[in-house]
Amino acid sequence: MPTPTGPHDGEPTAARPATPEQREADRLARLADDAEATAERMSRHASGLYGRFAGGQPLLYGHHSYKSAVRDRRRADSATRRAVDAAERAKQARTRARGAQAVADLAAVEAGRTRDWQRSDFRPGDVVTVRDFRRDMAVTSTYRVKRANPKTLTLDGGGGGWDDPKRTYDRILSRTRDGVTVTDPGQLDT
User: In terms of domains, do 95 and 147 share one?
Assistant: First the structure.
């Protein structure tokens, strides 16, 4: 395996702490980089195989070169199909890497807290960003707080009350009040 270089070298930085989620995101980013390089190399190779036909030379049936021309065209077509498949795999790898980076970013936000969110941190009208679904999925939503309950927040779902979601405090990523966004509830204690 080549020595990793570039922005995904796996070294922790101030912006990207060395968490398991970040290491996984860096690993997937390196795999995506490798897949993209392989797809590009395969595409160049496939394009080179069509060199015999670059001037628009038709296949001359009955000519002594016909068999080798057909063979070369099939070889080039097959290489092109493989290059297209490799490009699709590279695209999927990049999508997985982006998803893993988003999960790592959310994990970093949650890990950077000095204390947990609690009921007294919220009041009706605050805008909160919450993590939806599982911890390994980087899906977030933004809501306006309707009510702070002992264990959950009741959020305004926009449907007049019948669809108001509730989220536990451990799923809150940030709170915005009067234009000031807070991601660490410990900042409120000072």
Answer: no
Is the torsion defined by CA of 110, 112, 117, 123 positive or negative? negative
Task: Give, in order, the Cα–Cα distances in Å from 99 to each of 75, 84, 92, 169.
Answer: 36, 23, 11, 23
pTM of the entire predicted model: 0.71
46 near 87, Cβ under 8 Å?
Answer: no
Query: Which of 61, 81, 111 is the last residue before a domain boundary?
Result: 111
- Chunked into runs of 10 residues, the chain (190 residues) has average pLDDT values of 45 64 94 97 93 76 83 92 97 95 88 90 94 77 93 86 84 93 86
Tally the domains of the chain: 2
pLDDT of residue 6: 46
**Per-residue pLDDT reduced to its tens digit, 134-168:** 666 778 889 999 999 999 999 998 777 677 889 99
**Sign of the torsion formed by the C-alpha atoms of 113, 114, 118 and 123:** negative
Would 15 be classed as within a structural domain? Answer: no
153 and 100 both lie in a single domain: no
Torsion of CA 175, 161, 171, 16, to 10 degrees: -50
Which residue range is the domain that position 69 belongs to?
20-111
